[in-house]
Specification:
The protein is an alpha/beta fold and about 450 residues long. The protein has 16 helices and 20 strands. The protein has three domains: about 100 residues, Rossmann fold (3-Layer(aba) Sandwich); about 210 residues, Mur-like, catalytic domain (UDP-N-acetylmuramoyl-L-alanine:D-glutamate ligase), CATH 3.40.1190.10; about 140 residues, Protein-Tyrosine Phosphatase, Chain A, CATH 3.90.190.20. A hairpin with a 2-residue loop joins β12 and β13. The longest helix has 16 residues.
């Protein structure tokens, strides 16, 4: 018998937004807990000390003794299960969980669960807006950023809800044993977070945990990684760019020269009526329709949303046109797959060529899939951040390369390279933490630099 089995207090590891929400959860239920963080000044420290004066907290390292004495370790998503102190505690029998797992034990309303390498935030926001069109009391959260979102456990205190829509990262799913969602989907899978996972197989395995206990499963017919590895009980739906086979499957079909979004043989709306642009957003729209239909949202409300919703900040967001040059903010493009989609989407809308601003923390990714798109659409790449050299070596002579030491300098270099009809695109294919607080901060700095151009 380990020491942990004799203790009932939880040890919350990590004091960011998720860790703070876990502290609120345990405090509200009168359950003893301690918080530990390897940083001396974690991001939510001030809020924690204000809300919980006198509460136990250990900073500057992960105390092995504290972990071994825990009745349960509640791990924040930014901290890997492979962290030596965490791995040792697990080997000694200390149970480890996360906020999504705790949420799944408590929630009573249906949950729509969405993961994937790209498109999660757009799909989650679309479904939530569709629900609001019908007056459904919906809460959105999980990994989703923005003012309208919050960590999953905070959602439990946000008033009575009819529906929860969660964006889930692979990091959150690592500690989720049985989500039991009403419907779950892996939208797609492309190389990402290989600084955390030993292989794409390990990354995919984390994503697959979203299907555990799901009553309905949605599959992307255009991405085999969306298929459940294990036989999943319940109803299976699908969506894809081809024509839908079943009455509750979604796809595309041609009619009188127009491409239509379809459910089975039902024509829902023309693709050109979507407020969102780009082929990837057609896929996102189909996914949102399928998820909404699975929880009973009528077609009319969903179609209205798709005609009105034009996109989220930092995701291929058109900021301005200056002297015939369009400036696009895709700071959310934190992996190669997202940047590929952004390049192709912007190229569809651009008469001239692209100037791409890229770079940051590459997360050990293979950047080579970018090369064909760079050769076809991009005349110049302005590189920033820690892994600029790695990108420069890969790009070689396929596009002109410029270097910048700040976002302001990068925007100035890009603007000087652009001719009327061209587009400047920030889509870094990298994480932002070497130069910025997060991708949203990076996007705001880019937007301010673009606005300052004269």
């Amino acid at each position: 018998m380990t020491q942990a089995m004799n203790n009932t207090h939880a040890v919350i590891v990590g004091l960011g937004k998720t860790g703070l929400s876990c502290a609120r959860y345990f405090h509200a239920r009168g359950r003893p807990f301690k918080v530990i963080d390897s940083r001396f000044s974690p991001p939510s420290l001030a809020e924690f000390e204000t809300e919980f004066p006198g509460q136990q907290i250990e900073l500057g390292g992960f105390s092995q003794q504290s972990l071994l004495q825990a009745g349960e370790i509640v791990l924040s998503p930014g901290i890997s299960l492979q962290t030596p102190e965490i791995a040792h505690a697990i080997s000694q029998g200390v149970p480890v969980t996360g906020d999504i797992d705790i949420f799944s034990r408590e929630v009573t309303a249906p949950v729509i669960a969405v993961t994937g390498s790209n498109g999660k935030s757009t799909v989650v926001t679309l479904v939530a807006e569709m629900a609001r069109q019908m007056g459904i009391r919906v809460a959105v959260g999980g990994n989703l950023d923005g003012r309208a979102s919050m960590p999953a456990l905070d959602l439990l205190h946000s008033g009575e809800r009819d529906l929860y829509v969660l964006e889930l990262s692979s990091f959150q799913l690592e500690t989720t044993s049985s989500l039991n969602a009403e419907i779950a989907v892996i939208l797609n899978l492309s190389e990402d977070h290989l600084d955390r996972y030993a292989s794409m197989q390990d990354y995919a395995a984390a994503k697959q945990r979203i299907y555990k206990g799901a009553r309905q499963v949605l599959i992307n017919r255009n991405d085999p990684a969306s298929e459940p590895w294990e036989t999943a009980a319940g109803q299976h739906w699908s969506y894809g760019f081809d024509q839908a086979a079943g009455d509750h499957d979604y796809g595309l079909s041609l009619k009188d020269g127009d491409s239509w979004l379809m459910r089975g043989s039902n024509h829902l709306m023309k693709v050109r009526e979507l407020a969102l642009v780009g082929r990837h957003n057609v896929s996102n729209a189909l996914a949102a329709l399928a998820l909404g239909h699975a929880v009973g949202i009528p077609d009319a409300a969903m179609v209205t949303t798709l005609r009105e919703f034009s996109g989220l900040p930092h995701r291929c967001q058109l900021l301005r046109n200056l002297r015939g040059v369009d400036y696009f903010n895709d700071s959310k493009g934190t992996n190669v797959g997202a940047t590929l989609v952004a390049i192709e989407s912007v190229a569809e809308r651009t008469r001239g060529e692209l100037i791409l601003i890229a770079g940051g923390i590459g997360k050990d990714a293979d950047f080579s899939p970018l090369l064909p798109a760079l050769e076809q659409y991009v005349k110049r790449v302005v590189l920033i951040g820690r892994d600029a050299d790695k990108l420069a070596r890969l790009i070689g002579s396929r596009a002109d390369i410029m270097r910048a030491t700040s976002m302001e300098e990068a925007v100035a270099e890009a603007a000087s390279s652009a001719l009327s009809g061209d587009a400047v695109l920030l889509s870094p294919a990298c994480a932002s933490f070497d130069m910025f607080k997060d991708f949203a901060h990076r996007g705001r700095v880019f937007a301010a630099a673009v606005e300052a151009l004269t």
